[in-house]
């Protein structure tokens, strides 16, 4: 396992969001800010609005959402890897790189998973870059309908670290709250930010920094945001929904708005497990291998800090479907809280399925929680 090194690689973030949801508008605003002047933007296609910025590269990657049961996430993402390699010399002068951050703007229909896999596992990329944040724009006007009809939009929101709600000037407060609640159910840990005509607070968006250049202790707690899964006002709504118990619905109908159970995000449960006791590393690895083999394609995102037996610091795990970032052992715990916390966003994988295999294979039982 790697340990955190003093000089960190270049942060690279993924900006995703459905067609016309405002990605370029947000970028155009950000790259005018002093903090983002030295940001190089890799664009996956030419959008309606051109980017008014000097540091722009293009990629021809076709990253369209998988359909049916097939998983395209292992397909080589050669073009993106090549672009990220080429820009190191194309955007350098006298041997000095003239960017210190990269944002990849994906096409509206792109599946974020293959891009994240490339960023997490391609050796040429991981030698120079580190994944910073996955940011998803959600268009307030069309989002309810888009989420209902386009599974790719649901996945884009589900894997996000940050969700930017665009065009909030075009809806009323109640509509915005309803959308925000739906997104909070889909992805409790993602921070939601409002943008009008692309105006959004840059540092809040692109600084999910797990391994920040200037931080000795990575802000792993903020990155994990496990607290968001507990006491989430929407969790009651979701647990009702995921019980899929029509009988339960009938008794709670008066307090909880009944969702349309055919919506795509109804099949994306998310939850957080907490464990008190240190976990045997080999047993943990065995459980993770099994889970990824059997359900990898349906684990949309997994993040965790794990208290491994006989280790000083926690081990950070981060996976997108069945591909894992190499686990990183930190030199120390960020606080006195030394419990293992693992968050999952899945597609149709019930909490009990994960919890039961974990207990059976590691001998550790999850602490009871009011999360979903
Ligand atoms: N009223 C309003 N319009 C917005 C806002 N953000 C974006 N738009 C408009 O929405 C349209 C689409 O914005 P883009 O930034 O091109 O969206 P995109 O996601 O980059 O689009 P594609 O790359 O084509 O998928 C443009 O006409 C923008 O001017 C906003 O906050 N308010």
TrEMBL record:
Residues 268-362 form the CobW C-terminal domain. InterPro entries: CobW-likC_sf, CobW-like_C, CobW/HypB/UreG_nucleotide-bd, P-loop_NTPase, Zinc-reg_GTPase_activator. SMART domains: CobW_C (SM00833). One of its GO terms (molecular function) is hydrolase activity. Pfam families: cobW (PF02492), CobW_C (PF07683). GO terms for cellular component: cytoplasm. Belongs to the SIMIBI class G3E GTPase family. ZNG1 subfamily. PANTHER family: COBW DOMAIN-CONTAINING PROTEIN, COBW-RELATED. This is GTPase, G3E family. It comes from Nitrosomonas oligotropha.
